[in-house]
From TrEMBL:
Keyword annotations of the record: Glycoprotein, Membrane, Receptor, Transmembrane, Transmembrane helix
Polar residues bias (residue ranges): 593-606
Organism: Pocillopora damicornis
Keyword Transmembrane helix applies: yes
TM ranges: 28-47, 374-392, 404-431, 437-455, 475-503, 509-534, 694-712, 971-991, 998-1017, 1023-1044, 1065-1085, 1091-1118
Region (Disordered), start-end ranges: 232-255, 559-606, 1161-1218
Name listed for the protein in its UniProt record: SSD domain-containing protein
Keyword Transmembrane applies: yes
Amino acid sequence: MGQRTALRLRSKLQAIFFKLGCFCQRNCWVVLAVGFFILIGLSVGIITAKIETDVEKLWMEVDGRLEKELQYTKDSVGEGAGTTNELIIHAANEGGDNILSVDSMQKHLKAVQKAVEIKVDIFGKTWSHTDLCYVPEVPSFNNSLVDGIIAAIIPCLVISPLDCFWDGAKNLKLRAELPSVAKVFPLEWTESNPTFLLTLLDQLNIEGKEEIKDLFVKAGITKGYQEKPCLDPTEPKCPSTAPNSPSKTGKAPDVKSELNGGCKGFATEFMQWAEELIVGGVTKHNNTLTSAKALQTILVLAGPQGLYKRWADRSQELNVRWSLDTAKQVLEAWQRRFTEEINEDVKETDEFSILAFDSTSVTDLLKEFSETSVSRIAIGYVLMLIYACITLKRWCEPIRSHGALGFVGVLLVTLSVAAGFGFSALCGITFNAASTQVLPFLALGLGVDDMFLLAHSYSSLIRGGDIRHVEEVGYCLGTTGVSVFLTSFNNMLAFFMAALIPIPALRYFALQAAVVVIFNFIGVIIIFPAMLGVDVQRMRHHRYDIICCLKSSSKNRGSEEVLSKTRSEFPSTTEREKNQHELEHSDNHAVSKPSNTMVTSNGKSDSSIGEVLVNEYTNNLDKQSKLSYDSEASMMRNHLSPNASQHGTPSSVVDSSVNGNDDGSFRYKCAPISLQNFATVYYGPALQKTSVKVAVILFFLGLLAVGIYGAFQVEDGLELTEVVPHNSVAHKFVEAQFKYFSFYPMTLVTQDNFDYANKQNTLLSYHEAFKQIPNVIRIPGSEEIPKFWLMYFRDWLNDAQTSFDQDWANKTITDAGWTEAASSTGVMAYKLLSQTDESDEIDRTQVRNYKLVSNGIIRPEIFYKALTVWIDRDVLGYAFSQADIKPKTVDFSNTRSSQDDKAMIVAAAQPITFAKINFNVIGLQETKDFVKLIKDVREICDKYAEEGLPNYPSGVPFTFWEQYIWLRRQIIIAISISLAVSFLAMAVLLFNIWAAAVIVLVLVMITVEVYGFMGLAGIKLSAVPAVTLILSVGVGVEFTVHMCMAFMQAVGDRNQRMQKAIEHVFVPIVDGAISTLLGVVMLAGSEFEFIVRYFFNLLLALICIGTFNGLLFLPVFLSLAGPGAMATEVPTPSLSNSLAIQNQATAPSSAGSAINDLELEEHEPSSETKGNEKPLERTNPMIKHWAQVEPTYDKEPWNSDMATIEGPRQHELDDVKF
C-alpha cells in the first residue's frame, strides 16, 4: 500500500511540474516579464531594511527572564535613564614597564584635560563637557546667590587616579558663571578650600547656612584638593598646604604610595575610588603597590534622559525640537569627537599609549560589522557568474552550449535572494550581522545548487533528443522538479521551525532564510524554466551560445537540425536503418515532425509525448511501473564507446556532423576533460571497489571522532577584541581594558510587592549576602562592600536624631516646638518624631518616646515619611547611592515660620516599586568568569526571591553574557527541530523511513564535524556561529537529498545505482559547492578578523565538509546499506541479439524521465502476434532499453515499503490546469 501511495504522490507532483514546465515554455517571455517585474519590485523593499545592533533586542530570549527584567526597569525609570562612561586608558605598549611615575601621571593629566575641553557643534549650539556631564543634584536653598554658587562649583563627576593629587582639581571646571558678588572670591577647585566657602556663608549672612554646612560636611566636601600632593611642587599654583609644597619638602610625590589603596574625589565620604578601578596590571609586595601597567580615568556623562531634562527648560536656545532622541544625538556626537581627539596622538613607538573608547564606539563598531560590503558581495557574485557560465559552456558544441543560461541563472537567483530580503524588510523582519554577513552567500549557494541541477538535467534531455519542441522544459521540470521541491520544502520547513527558538537574532535569521528559500524555489521552478524555453528557441534558430546574434554556418545548421529532431535508429542485424525523420522548412525556420515515433503493424504512430504521459496510468494500479533512461549517462556512454559504431550505433555520424568534423574526434577529445567524464569513468567506479569503501568508511569514522573530540574543546564566548579590527586603536583599547581592568557596573533591583518598611532586615541581609561574590569591589582599606541606599538613609536619620538630641538638650526644641536657634536638621527630626503613622495625625508628646532608628532599623511607622525628607534634603547622599527609587517622592519644604500641626505634616512617599543597589565588579577576563559571576549572583537573587523579596540583577555582564548559560541548550533545540522536521518531511514525501534516516544521519555528521572544527580552530561558541550551525542542516540537505533520490530512482544492484546516482548529481553538486565558495571567498578579505574567522573560515569548513560527506561518504554508505530501489528492471526474453548487445554496452537507466518506457508500454508487443502481422518494431532510436519494469517490494534489506515512478496518471494531469 505504501509503495502505491508513493507512486501516486510522485506521479501527481511530476504531472504538476510537467504541465508547469510546458506552460513556462509556451509563455516564456510573458513569464520572464511578469517574474522579473515582481522580483525587482520586491527587491526595492531592501531600502526599508532595518539593521538591529542593540544586543538587548537581538540576543535576549523573547518573553524570557532577562527581557522581562529589562522591561521592568524601562517601565520604572523610563527610556535613556542612567549615565554613560567614557574611558581613557593609559597603558603600557610592548616593552613598557612601570607606569607609576610622575612623568606618566602628567601625560595622563594632559589627556584628561584635553578630554574635558572637547566641544562639538550641533543643533545650533556648541556643547562642552560641562553641558553633558553627570552632576549630583543639590537642593534649592531658596537663595539665588547660594543656588548660583552651588550650581557653579559642584563639578562634573570624573573618576581618576589624578584625584590622589592636587592636579586632579584641574579637571574640575566651574560649570556656570559665578554670581557677580562671588567672583571676587577664589572658588576654583585649584585654589579654593570648601571650608572657605562655608565661612563665606557666615560673612554673607545666608539664611539656612547650617543646612548647607551639614550638606557639605556629611558629603566630605571640606578640604577639597588643597592638602593633596602636587605632581610638580615647583608649579606656582601648587598650594602651600600641599604636603610636598616648596615650603615643606619640595619633592616629587611617591606615585606608588599615593595610589596604593585608591583615591578619593572632591566628596570624600561618597567618592572613594577603589584601586582596582583606576590602576591596572599591578604588582604588590607586602600588600603595597610597587608597579602597574595601566591607569584609567572615567568621565561620567548624563544619560539621554538626564540631558533631556536638563535642557528641557532651555530648548528655545536650540534650532531643533528638543526630545529624548535629539539628546541622544548630542551625546553621540560628543562621544565620537572625544574618541577621535584622544586617539589621534597614539603612536606605536611610545612606551605607553593613551587610548579612548566609549559606548557609541561599540555601537558604531557593531553597525559597521553588520553592514554588508557591497563591493565584496558584487565581486563574489561576479565570480559565481563567471563560473556558472564556464561550467555550462560546451566549447565543442557552440549551439548546444548553455553558458549564457548559467549566467542568467545566477542573476535570477541573485534577484530572488534580493526579493526575499526585500519582502522580509517590508514585513518588518529586522536584519542583523548574521543576516548581512552569512545569508546573502548561503542563500545564493542554495539557490544556485537547484539551478545547476535543473540546467544539467535540461542539457542532458536536450542532448538525448527524445522530446518534442514544445515539451523540452516540461520533461526537464517533470524529472527534476520533485527533487528541487523536496530540498526547498525541507529547508523552508526546517527554517520556519527553527524560528520557534525564542532568540530574536536567530528567529529573524531563520525567518529570512525561510523566505529566501521560498523565493529561490519560485525563481528556479517558474522563472528559470522560462529561461530554458528561451534557450530552446535559441537552439531551434541555430544561434550560438552567449553570442546569440550569430547563427551557425549552413553546414552546421543542417547538422544541428538533424540532431535536434532525431537520433539515429537502432541498428538492424544486417545494416543501419535509414533516418525516418524529415525536415520541413517554413519561413527559413526549421519545423520538425514529432521525433518520438512508434511504428506499429497498422502503420499508425503516436508522436505526442504529452499523450504518452496522459495515457501512462489508464490501466489499473497493478500495471507495471516504468523507468526512464538516464540521458546524461547515455551521453557519456557515447563518449566512452568510440567503437559503438561496430554495433551499429550512429552516434559518430551525428556527432561528426554537429561539430563539423567528419570523424567526430573533436567531441571525443573534449569529453575526457569534463567533470561528468571524471565522475563516470573514474570516480564512480573507484567507489565501487571494496578497498575504497573500507577506506572511506574508516576515514569518516575517524573524521567523526575528531569532530566529537573538537566539540568538547569548544569554549563559550565572543570577545570584543575579536570583533574590533586588529591593529586599530580601538583594538588596543579593548585589549588593554580586558587585560588590566575588566570593570563593569552591576545593579541589583528590588521590586514592588515587598514590605520595605517592616522587612528592612531582609533587605540588609540581601545586601550583605553579596560579600561572598569575590568580584565585587570593596571599600578602599576594608573588606566591606559599598553601602546602599537604605544604609545612607539610616545614617542620615541617625545624624538627624543626633541633631535633635542636641537641640533638645539645648532646649531649642521642646514639646511645644522650636526656637530660632534650633538647627534645621533638628527641626526636621522633630517633625518626623511627631508623626504617629502614615496618616496626618501629629502627636508632639511622643518625640522622646522613641528614636528615628532603633537597633539599625528605621521606625516602620514613619518609614515612607522619612523617605520623603531624606530624598529631598540629603541630595548628595541619595545621588551617590544611585538608588533611583520609584515612584518619585514629593518635594519637602522644611517650613520654620509656622509651627502649627499643618506645618508639621510630612507627606508620605508612595510604596517603593523600584530601587537599585549598585556595585562595581572586576576580575572578569574570560567568558567562564562572567558565567560564574552570573550564576553566583542569580543564586543569591533566587534565594531571596523565594523568601519574598522580588529582585533581579542587571548590568552589562548580564545583558551580554547571560546568553551563554542557555545558548548550548537553545542551539541543540534549534538543530534538533530542524533535523526532526527534515526527517518527517523526507519520510512523508519519499515514503521511505530508511532513506530519511540515512539523510538525517549524514546531516548529523556534517553538523558534528562543523562543530568539532570550531573547537579545533579555536572558534568560540556564541550566537553568531550558532546561526551557521543551524544553517548547516539546510546546506547539508542540498548535498545529500539529490544523491539519495538519484540512488533510489536508479535500477540495478546497489553499486550500479550508486554509479548512476553519481553520474546524475555529481556535477551539479560540485558546481553548486564551487559557486557558493566563490561567493563566500570574498569574506576572506575583510578588515574584521572576526568576519574572517567566524564567517569565512566556518562557512568554508561547512561547504567542504558538506561536499565531502555528500559526494564521498553518502554514496559509499548507500552502496552498502542504502534504501531499496523504487522500481526494478526485469529483462524481457524476446530481446534480439543486437539489442542485447546494445543493452550490455550501456548501464541500466535511472528513473530520471519515465518518458521512453511510457512510450514502450503504450506500444508493447503482445506475446502472441495477430495473424500474419509482424511484431512491433522499435524504431525510436532514443529508447535504449527493451525492458519490463516492475515495482520492488522489500527485495533488499533496507528497502522501505514505498516505491515511485517518474510519470503522472491521466486523471492527475487532468487536474492540473495552467
